[in-house]
Amino acid sequence: MNEKLTDDKLTTFAGEGYLVLSDVYTPEEVNELIRQFDLHWVQLTASGQIIQNGNRPLESLYPRLRDYHRKNEIIKRLSLKPQLFAYLEQLIGEEALIISTSYYFKSPSTRGLPMHQDNYAFGVSPGTTYAAWISLDGSDEGNGGMTFVPGTHSLDLQVPEGDTSDVRRYFSDEGQWLKDYETAEMVKVATNPGDVIFFNGNIVHGSSDNLSRHRFRRSLLIHFTGVSVEKLALNFNNLMDKTGARVRRRLNTDTKITEGQESVFSIQEADYFAGWR
Fold this sequence. Notes:
Layout: H1 7-16, E1 18-21, H2 27-46, H3 57-61, E2 65-66, H4 73-79, H5 82-92, E3 96-104, H6 119-122, E4 129-135, E5 146-148, H7 167-170, E6 187-189, E7 196-200, E8 205-207, E9 219-226, E10 231-232, E11 239-240, E12 246-247, E13 250-251, H8 266-270
Parallel strand pairs: 10-13
Antiparallel strand pairs: 1-7, 2-3, 3-9, 4-7, 4-9, 5-6, 5-8, 11-12
């Protein structure tokens, strides 16, 4: 497959803040990613690290899985796919570093993510985060597909409404909700397995609830930053370059999300990743 993006695609990403590319991952690669995460899910469930909650039976049984590119060589290799990096580096104009990876089962009845901006929490400076959302199932509005407000990547980071003294809620998904954009001109994106959505870390985006009866919406989300980054809040000393080598940067102690907090470490008190595995 040609790894050179057309001018039209580069213009779309620059103007809209996101871009969908079809068939970046082969069916074999998609199936291998699903298989590897299923193996980890079985191990986590068998060892008692995943415990079902009767109030959210499927959502709790299929939690988000975090940073398995550092735990599994096959997931690492597929996260470092050269074609993925080639596309991303054309879009951002420099070499890319992986910040983190997140795997979503998005089982039926799982809630969507409210509209938010990624770099509000990541604190990349200078610049912003970038994401590659790898579709492993077909996705649409019915099973929890992605939603974007085109052009909002040109905005500064917005501050959500909320009580900064309620640390757990303030740092939660709901606490980062930009309610004013729920009525904006949103684009609901449908994907096929193997497609990738690239998007800017300042674009306002979210996802719908999975209201389907039996369709999962599995995806692997990779967050990146450009190599010119000087500091950030998440995984600042455990970034990964395209060769798989560890890269370190400084901790950003002055992120947007920690304004009004006693310190950048308030996010640890909030224990945002408690439900992840």
